[in-house]
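Quick start: what a row looks like.
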Amino acid sequence: MKRARNNMPDPAEIAVIAAALHSVAVEMGAALRRTAFSPNIKERRDYSSAVFGARGDLIAMGDDMPVHLGSMPMSVRAALDAFDLAPGDVALLNDPYRGGTHLPDLTMVAPVFIGRERSPAFYVANRAHHADVGGMYPGSMGPCREIAQEGIRIPPVKLMHAGKMDAQVKAILLANVRTPAEREGDLTAQMGACHVGIERMRELAARFGSTSSKETRLDASVRALLARSEKRMHAMLSELPAGEFRAEDFLDDDGVHAKPIGIRVAVRIDPKRGRVEVDFTGTDHQAAGSINAVYAITWSAVFYVLRCLMYAQGRATTSHATAGLMRPVRVIAPEGTVVNARPPAAVAGGNVETSQRIVDVLLRAFAAACPERVPAASSGTMNNLTIGGIDPRTGLPFTYYETIAGGHGGSPQSAGASAHHAHMTNSLNTPAEALEYAYPFRVTRYALRHSSGGAGLHAGGNGVVREVELLSDAQVTLLADRRTLHPWGLSGGSPGASGITTAIEDGVQRILPGKCTLELKAGSRLRIESPGGGGWGKPRR
């Protein structure tokens, strides 16, 4: 085996192994998508997969959802702290206060044993958003006041023992959801994805296992990969200007009190040491509504934004998304604030809405440090829509969940994309055909929301118009933002249009608040007009 002068593996071999690790995570996601039951996972791709080293360090991840991937290491750590996982074991958890995001996101962690080793050489994990995990509202995404109202909360438990399902854990879980058959199918798909990851990692170990020392070629390359990622982050930060850069942004409200919720950050860059401190001191206290984010979410948003800056600098092609990237980074998020809530705060919207606003405020701060790399604000909301009721075709309960795309902000290089899931989501809209097949709905309109992007030298992208007719009585819940405040422009660009949600019942139209729940009769329609992105630069005359 070739070795570099510093006794590290050959750089070409590191690159090959990094690509192979990434392919393991991608294949896990593909297996999950193909075998899942719910349209939310199968069609929208609301899932993520990743590979971890023996100590629980992130070493590879799929091209999935940033809000999942940046926070997943904390769930893996919680599982490893709770158990010594043996061959055939699979841990399950969703507790936001133990590294999770919100309750519908169920995470599975499985160990990878190589040969006769007594401890795992690697771990594989995946996270998927289940369309219902119980609670007060169908879809488990309602305007709750505490986490106990949001659904079943699962600490780290062993779902599989030595290859056998724990029937009691499974029974408790399925007894607390509205759609147990769909949940069981999605859980089985997640377990299958873990099995795929285990097999592929064993194949990699067999291929890159020979060495003259105790450390295998695969182990050495993983160690080098982590070090290389850290070095790339140091290099990126060393090219930024020194100083403290501050910004603030606001959520419209928390769904309980009609006042904005402020998120404030100070980014302190030390280019000499290649380090950065991201300090959210001054952010508003945790809220009465469900827009509270746990620390894992805030960490995830910082991880995402720094990766975006690396990409804009051209370093993303030579660095991989591993735990090494965050070694030069310190994140301060005071407990009891909306970016690091304490139990029993409700957190469903923290994952989907507050994560977006954390990204916005970070980009605003970095725009002062490196304006040539930062775009204007994107739509800034995932436009979460959940609908639940009884399907008249089967007589059984249904729960539908979807996030709806908006416009990207214009950037220094180009106009913003239209009808895209920006920043922390990276999912898809459910195709109209799949939606009408799976649920008692009819899609009556699906189009671009023209002129919703902000004007600028590079205009913001447009949002979408999505109108659905209900074919049965149903409870509708909306968890969205940027309904009163607009996605901001940069460098003289105009803000994007804020979003609008309209309920049409018996011919009467009413504008809905961004965070609400209501009962609608069969024949009613719900129209969501998502926000556009902000424009960048002054428009030419």
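That is the whole record. The mean pLDDT is 95. The two ends are 62 Å apart (CA to CA).
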